[in-house]
Amino acid sequence: MKSFLIILFSLLIHAGAAFAQVQVSEPWIRATVPAQKTSGAYMQINAAKEARLVSVSTPVAGISEIHEMAMVNNVMKMGAIKGLDLPAGRAVELKPGGYHVMLLNLKRQLKEGETVPLTLVVEGPDKKRQSIEIKAVVRPIQATGATDAPAMHEMKH
Ligand SMILES: [Cu+2]
């Protein structure tokens, strides 16, 4: 019995190690008003080994895209990118005014305080993919970062 427990324990450690290569901290989504169809999701992603975020999905949105923001002719524009590189050991921040996950075709209003599941798919240099399930907290509409206000999202999409 004792040896069985030890084996089980070591299996758990291995599963944990594989999963811990990519850590997501402080995921949040901006709350929406009733008719609003878009919002943004933000978080910090820290990959122990080089990886790439290749897709995101959530049951509350019809489409989820990875977006970057860039200055084009002095105007801040955003657009979808195919993936976001996650350098080894360095946190990549998705935040208002920067990289973000764009949630489109929202199926319902997102209310402050609720949690929303998100699935991130990360690809390693060996092309192996890993899904990471996280839960994002919905924060108030006016949460930090005026440049990425919901009204602006509505205009650009
Ligand atoms: Cu966007």
Structure report:
By secondary structure, this protein is α+β, with helices and mostly antiparallel strands. It has two helices and ten strands. Strands 1, 2, 3, 4, 5, 6, 7, 8, 9 and 10 form a ten-stranded mixed β-sheet that branches. A hairpin with a 2-residue loop joins strand 4 (61-72) and strand 5. The longest helix is centred in the first third of the chain and has 18 residues, at 2-19. It starts with a helix and ends with a helix. Mean pLDDT is 85; it is low at 14-18 and 145-157. Copper (II) ion binds at residues 67, 78, 100, 102, 153.
Distance between the ends: 60 Å
Could you give the count of β-strands? 10
Strand percentage: over 45%
What is the H/E string?
HEEEEEEEEEEH
What is the CATH superfamily label? PCu(A)C copper chaperone
- Could you say what the CATH architecture is? Sandwich
C-alpha geometry: globular
Helix count equals 2
What small ligands are held by the chains?
copper (II) ion
Oligomer: single chain
Poorly predicted parts: 14-18, 145-157
According to CATH, the fold-level topology is Immunoglobulin-like
How does the helix and strand content classify structurally?
A: alpha+beta
The domain count comes to 1
- Rg: 18 Å
